[in-house]
Amino acid sequence: EVREYMEQITTPKVLTEEERIFLDNQNSRPISDFMRVKFEKDAQRYWDLFYKRNCEKFFKNRYWTTKEFEELAEGSKEKSLLEIGCGVGNLIYPLVEEGFFRKIYACDFSPRAIEFVKLHPRYNPSIITAFQADVTQIDSLSCVIKEPVDIVTMVFVLSAINPEKFRSVIQNLLPIVRTGTIIFFRDYGLYDMTQLRFKPGHKISDKYYVRQDGTRSYFFTIEELKSLFESGGFTEVSNNYVHRRTVNKKESIDVPRVFIQAKFVKNIT
Predict the structure, then answer these.
(1) Which of 8, 102, 189, 221 is 20 to 30 Å from 260 by CA-CA measure?
(2) What family classification does the UniProt entry report for this protein (predicted)?
(3) pLDDT digits (tens, 9 = 90+) for 56-112
(4) Long-range contacts of 252-259 (CB under 8 A, 24+ apart)
(5) Residue 2, Cβ neighbours under 10 Å: how many?
(6) Are 94 and 65 in contact (CB under 8 A)?
(7) Of all helices (H) and strands (E), which one includes residue 23?
(8) Distance (Å, rounded) from C-alpha 91 to C-alpha 81?
(9) Other CB atoms within 10 A of residue 61 CB
(10) What topology does CATH give the domain 31-238?
(11) Domain coordinates of the chain in residue numbers?
């Protein structure tokens, strides 16, 4: 029997001594400056290859989002949504099925991912505008989105971006949001199982790693996330670590995950 346990709290995972030693060992073989530059320069190619290999089959449809972020369902039929890092549409198409949102903007760094979004049988250009964008670049969003959106979702996307560019991403939101616009955020939290599994030779910088396939991942604390959004003129509504465990005693499987789930709202300017 598989059981899931989940709690939202403001404290990070407590490491065992073994986990602490493993984390320290990640520093034993640092990535060269040459490779750091290469991973940044070729970031789009790595994500395109990811979608070429996995097509639309890697991620499951995210039916959980309306349970966790109720505003995605409540009174949303007349609202507009921007999803940053839409992938192949696993978040937007469950919303489209329910008839939520009069307008959905969906962008991704990978042109191939956007192709998959447009090939979906429910793709309707009168409702959905799907476009490729590097959200770290100025005007990358405002050149397509001409009126402020009501809701922005950022689900497992910011972690894939170089942390030196996080503030640029938040700044690029400002022209396409208004007072009261809600940001829904979910991403990897500090000491998630996937962070603890990285071996030496994968750590780029503090809390920032490269996977075997060249894509990268950052692991957040709630404090730095709060600081990041508040510096861009947003107020924290909620911001917690989600500690989730999937346990199968028969198979001796215990998978501890740590995510961050947060909600921010645009201040009055």
Answers:
(1) 102
(2) Belongs to the methyltransferase superfamily. METL family.
(3) 554 555 566 777 778 888 878 899 999 999 988 989 999 998 899 999 999 999 998
(4) 255/193, 256/13, 256/193, 257/192, 257/193, 258/12, 258/13, 258/188, 258/189, 258/190, 258/191, 258/192, 258/193, 259/186, 259/187, 259/188, 259/189, 259/192
(5) 11
(6) yes
(7) helix 17-25
(8) 11
(9) 15
(10) Rossmann fold (3.40.50)
(11) 31-238
